[in-house]
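call fold(seq) -> tokens
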Amino acid sequence: MNVKISINQVSIGIAIIVIIFILSISFNNAQARTNTSFVPASKFLVPDYKGSISFAVNGTYSTAIFENDVWAFTNLTLSGAQPIENFGISTQNSNVIISSYTSSYNTEDQVSRLRYTVEGRGEQIINFGQGTVGTLEWSISFNNHSVDKGKGWTTFNDGTIVLTGATGNVSIVRYDYFGYGLPSSNLQRFLQLHSVAIVTAATLAVTVTIAVVIKVKKQRKFE
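ret:
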């Protein structure tokens, strides 16, 4: 049997696929925007490592998943600030109170700033969920004093940063230099912001990367 398919039929088929794709993104985006609120009294515990995370202000998140001693948040939004699409954190022998997050993005770079206070000379392991596209640099300060890499903090190739021994106020500034024209197109950026599938994958990646860092550090401790 010979089957003939006209150009119009192909066009209609493509149009249907595109419509279904757009509707699925819209539906997923609506689901992703069902947020949970938190207040400064809310605590996210890391019991096995005697750690906790809380926030100095009210805020919301789409999901907060605790797995492998890591808290992974999606669309974490502090009062008056833009959301952190994917954010992972684990604490060891320290209590962290996150006070602010800001991020600026243009065609050549992205600058992200996180501030928190910490009680206890423990360790914080943090991943901003942004990957490592382009050139990545960091600026860290403890109580308004700049700290050199290797003297209180270190980083891994996946964008995870580990801070050790800090007390009081901590400031983390992450600089992503993409180079001219390298950042995502508008469509790619749209998908990054609105696709639940992509967000879910990114959340899993954040959890896994921090969990791997914890495992590596634990192995080194007993070597």
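Residues 91 and 124 are 5 Å apart (CA to CA).
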